[in-house]
Amino acid sequence: MITHAHPFKLRQLQYFLAVAELRHFTKAAELLNVTQPTLSHQIGDLEGQLGTPLFDRLGKAVRLTEAGALFLGFAEAALKQIESGRTAIAELHGLSRGLLRIGASQSFVRRLLPPLLGTFTKEYPGIAIEVYEMTAQRIEDGLYKGDLDVAIGYAPALSPETELEPLFEEHLLLVVGHGHSLAHRAEITLAELEGIPLVIFPREYTTRIVLEDLFKKAGIAPKIIAQSNSVPVMLGMVQASNVGTIVLESALSHEEDFKVIRLADPSPTRTSALMWSRHVFRSSAAKRFAEMVRQSFSLMVAPPKQTRSPKGSR
């Protein structure tokens, strides 16, 4: 039987979520910077108020009971609402202070975001900024959990909980060194990449999934000799060896000395987008940053430089 004589305390929910995540009282106590007896006492009080155990104690480890697993979602939702309330109250202070947490795909972090972030910090020096380079799945998880305020990634969304606002369309391009056998080409079909050594993103990146689908439709098995989650590493391999890579044009800098070749039949593109959680409060800082993104990206995005190709070459 649940008693309503003593309402839940915020710290009890925080303690419960920490133990539920770590499955260990000692580790949770260390994370929360409290003593284990204090943590155990607060969890015990919470269980008493709910009238049921939330954890099965298995020596030093613990696991959620059926009631604990059920209560977990409600506790997470309650803390999200409290955090949204705090953010809303902080909005009363305008953009003079606060925190802006941004998730972004690697190509944006590398070239497009830095100048925009510089402009934002000059205009709003009281807003602390945290920028995280993340995969699509981690971005959407962060938005859903309220760990990110806004993000920049690519359509389509993986979750119905994510709202997308398309920004611009950009091409996937083949990049090789000037000494590569394909360096004289201005354009190449996907089918012609059969047997060409490539270094590309691993499968946790949606760009890799897009490429694999395109290769399948083109009827080829690409010769992938290496994979990396770092654009600089892949471009470094291109520069130092006879491999090629396929990246989005926004990942390329005009100062880098590579041969960029258009892909054709089909010409693969991806649509970049602002990304929001449908259920998390949008702070003034996030909305202002999004406005700056909309205003700036059409001017910032330009095709990387092309090396002039011999007349008649493809």
Task: For the structure shown, list the relevant keywords.
two-stranded antiparallel ribbon; alpha/beta; elongated; Arc Repressor Mutant, subunit A; D-Maltodextrin-Binding Protein, domain 2; eight-stranded mixed β-sheet; 9 helices; single chain; disordered C terminus; 314 residues
Report on the architecture of this protein.
The protein has 314 residues and is of the alpha/beta class. The chain has 3 domains: 10-90, Winged helix-like DNA-binding domain superfamily/Winged helix DNA-binding domain (Arc Repressor Mutant, subunit A); 94-167 and 271-300, Periplasmic binding protein-like II (D-Maltodextrin-Binding Protein, domain 2), CATH 3.40.190.10; 170-269, D-Maltodextrin-Binding Protein, domain 2. It is built from 9 helices and 12 strands. The strands form 3 sheets. Strands 3, 4, 5, 6, 7, 10, 11 and 12 form an 8-stranded mixed sheet that branches. The chain has a two-stranded antiparallel sheet with strand order 1-2. Strands 8-9 form a two-stranded parallel sheet. A hairpin with a 2-residue loop joins strand 1 and strand 2. Helix 1 (10-22) crosses helix 4 (66-90) and helix 2 packs across helix 3. The longest helix has 25 residues, at 66-90. It is elongated and about 75 Å long. The model is unreliable at 300-314 (pLDDT under 50).
Number of separate helices:
9
Task: Enumerate the spans where pLDDT stays under 50 for 5 or more consecutive residues.
Answer: 300-314
Give the SSE string: HHHEEHEHEHEEEEHEHEEEH
Estimate percent helicity. Answer: 40-55%
End-to-end gap: 76 Å
Determine the CATH superfamily of the largest domain.
Answer: Periplasmic binding protein-like II
- The class by helix and strand makeup works out as alpha/beta
Characterize the overall form. Answer: elongated
CATH fold topology of the largest domain: D-Maltodextrin-Binding Protein, domain 2
Radius of gyration, CA atoms, in whole angstroms: 25 Å
